[in-house]
Structures are given as structure tokens and as C-alpha cells.
Amino acid sequence: MAPRMIDIGINLTDSMFRGVYRGTRYHADDLAQVLRRSRNAGVDRIIVTTGNLKMCRQALSLVRDDDNMYVTIGCHPRNAAEFDKFYGGPDAYVKAQKDFLLDPANKKKIVAIGECGLDYDRLFFCPKETQLKHFHRHFELAEKTGLPMFLHDRNTGGDFAKIITENRSRFKDGVVHSFTGTPEELKTYIDLGLYISLNGCSLKTEENLKAAAQVPLDRLMIETDGPWCEIRPTHASFKHLKMTMEQQDMYKPRAVHKERFEFGNMVKGRNESCTIGQVLLVLSELYGIDPNELAEICYQNSLRVFFPDELAESEDNK
What we know:
Elements: E1 5-10, E2 20-21, E3 24-25, H1 31-40, E4 43-48, H2 53-63, E5 69-73, H3 82-85, H4 90-102, E6 110-119, H5 128-135, H6 137-145, E7 149-154, H7 159-167, E8 174-176, H8 183-191, E9 195-198, H9 206-212, E10 220-222, H10 245-251, E11 255-256, E12 266-267, H11 276-287, H12 291-306, H13 308-316
Parallel strand pairs: 1-4, 4-5, 5-6, 6-7, 7-8, 8-9, 9-10, 11-12
Antiparallel strand pairs: 2-3
Pfam families: TatD_DNase (PF01026)
Organism: Linnemannia gamsii
GO molecular function, one term: 3'-5'-DNA exonuclease activity
């Protein structure tokens, strides 16, 4: 039996999960099978991350009738220009975000503010100045709602840490997802009281592995960030990925190219929630901890941040 896990970040609104890749349909919508595989792998909750208003609407519609799926509400740094382009300007964009957050129908489904932050690796999507101009607007949303922050940081030369430090009193909890930073950056975020989430992209190089091994267990979460960030044979983490046949069936089912799609198979190059077990097993090797124990640690950390009322209730019933 698979240990229970929470995939705290996956981009299920991406059209790849509907069989469409860069505007071209290659196969039928197989999202239902993606979710079935996740449950078989022990993933009992999924948090769908959003990166703009359109994704927020799509994600809320997707999770509405599923008791095990939740969403974040925010604007990814690569989409920050949408604040200025929106009809009515940035203030109207923030109001549209607030409308999602204040709608009573959404209250139980929205568990974090984000994805938000800074990304200097892909400035062709959005200039640095625009990202810096609008990142702070998410702190207002976190302050108003009391929700944790789902944070994005890529190669920001200290700018991200500076802004978080200046605004740390405005939000209770936050997680730096898909962490790929240095041990020094890790220490800064831990000292700020943040959590760290790891996925396949967090484990590509030997340097990544050294940093990942230093994440305190009481601050650790795991995710897939699908349809990206899978663990590949070329990654430094791959040599640490040791699976039984049962684990292989759960965490790495047979995959085929999208051009040869068959129901029941994963799609090569499209990451999904069931593979979170691979991240767990690699980290289990790095930490020298039984995977079942590590899974439960990550699970409890995720409850503490995203589902605090449930955690408090369970502790009261002990």
C-alpha cells in the first residue's frame, strides 16, 4: 500500500492534460486517468496552482466537485504584465483576484495565494521591472485572507529574499516551491520561517542534491509541478531512484509518446501526480529515512500550512 501524499503543486489547467500540446491535439482528454493514477499512487490531495485570472477560473471549475482537489489564486511572475494590460489596470486585476477569494462558493477550495514571486530565468516572458512592480500585490491578498503563500523564485540575485523579508509580517506561512537554489538561499528562507517544496527540477544536479539534503524535515514538502519537472535518467537524482516492482507500477507506469497515445498509459515527457513517489524515494535515500516515515512527515507539514483547521481538529481528537 502506498503511503499517503499531497501533491502541493501541479498545473492541471495546462492543455497537455486534455491532449493538446502547443495548440495541436494529439490525443483524447485523459485527465480522469491522470487522477486515477494519482489516487493509486497514494496521492489523496492535489493542489492545482494557477498563474493568471484565466487559470483561476479554469482551476476552480476543475476542482469544484472533487473533494480531494484544491487551488491557489495568484499571478505567476511571467504573467505579471497582465496587471497593466487588464481593463481598469492593476487595481482592477487585484479586485478580480479578490472576487475569487471572497466568493463563499470558493472558500473551501482556495488554500493559498500564488503562484507568485520572481523569475529572472525567463525574462522573455516578462521584464524584471514589471515583475518587481506587481509581486507585492499578493501580500495584500495574503494579509486580507490569512492564507499561506505559494512562492516562486528563480535566479533572482537576492531580490526575492529582500522582498519577502520586507513583507514577512504580512503573511503567516509560505512555501518556496520547486526549490533549485543554493544552500545559502535555503538558509535564508528557513530563517524567514518558510517551507521548501521539492520536485524533479529540484534534484537535477549534484549541487541540487546537496541543497535538498539540508532542508529541515519540519519544513519539507513535495510536489510534481506537472506537466513539467519529471525526474529523468540524465538527472543526478536518477541514481538514487530505487523502486520495487510495486512502486514502479504506482510511481512510474508505462509511458508512450503522445503520437502513439493509448488509454491506460502515461505520456512521455508529461509529468503527473503519480510520479511524486519518485521524488519521495530519492529524498528517502538522501535523508536515510524510511519512505513511509518521510511521506508522513511531508504530509503533516502540508496539512499544517494548507489545511490548518483539519490538523487542529485531528489533534484535538487525540
